[in-house]
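Predicting holo structure, iron/sulfur cluster bound.
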Amino acid sequence: MYSFKGINKSDLTEILVENSFPSFRSDQIFNWVYNNLVIKPDLMRNLPGELQKFLVNNFLMENLKLIKVNKSRDGTSKFLWELNDGERVETVLIPQSKEERFTVCISVQVGCDLGCNFCATGLNGCKRNLTTAEIVDQVWQISRYIDKNNLGELRNVVYMGMGEPFLNYDNLKKSIRIINSEKALNIGSRRITVSTVGIVPKILEFGRDFDQIGLAVSIHSGDNDKRDKLMPINKKYDLNAIKSALKDYYKLTSRRITIEYLMISGFNDSIRDAKKLVDWLGNMNVFINLIPANPVDGLAHKPSPENKIKNFKKYLDNFNIPVQIRASMGEDVTAACGQLRLREE
Ligand code: SF4
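Done. Tokens:
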């Protein structure tokens, strides 16, 4: 059985031709699935009955069953899905400041082994990687949700949900190709961003594979001792190693890198911390997002107060570093990654 959302159009053409169907049928099927958002073969009216039957018998058209949607007052919606083996993952739909435009934040693993100490996803380890189809289906299901509810347009896809994308690299790669393909979900390269904690050996490889896709790196501290405490992966790939990989990445792609910096009250939000960050950045071409930490059940950290975040930003402004304070979205619907799944379990 093939998972439809895990294959690209040329794979489908090959399968059809091998089974004595004409190659042009793959265009028609992709058009039904990705343009018309129709997945039931018997509704694909321009296909002969024999091909409809072939699709029913050989293709799994959906990989996610919706368990719950939590809607926040600020317009954020959090989706909890069940996979075919009973595991659960989350996807978050976030409205942009321009009305009727949305960003979807997708997951790549069931849980995560990296154990960052501010993150609900890391609390129970990683059960498994998501397949290409399970990753793509999140974007497809959200596109259909937006379409059905007449909400507007899906503009951006960010790989920033559950799990570390660079630890599921093959499926990350294949899913980007399908999400980006004009024949499939057709989200432009510049509207796709992959966020990593800094899995150093993959940074340059990613730049080679996708020089137009955005890269965001979660740094959260310019001080190795503090970062060790927040993110155990720093003991393997520390700030020096990450910086050197980012410099190589920039040389290759000339793409500005987004630095994610979670503002945690009393931990990494002082002017001293801002100075450490500036020192670490040196002359790298970056854009910084300061994000007030989302509170997580069972974890002690709290978001920094507004004035601390503003002072931190002001310090960075002195060095002409492009920086924005990103609103913390969906707090009332447990939008911090992994929380809804944990609560439901
Ligand atoms: S923040 Fe990302 S890398 Fe860290 S534990 Fe959570 S999911 Fe894993």
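The chain has a mean pLDDT of 94.
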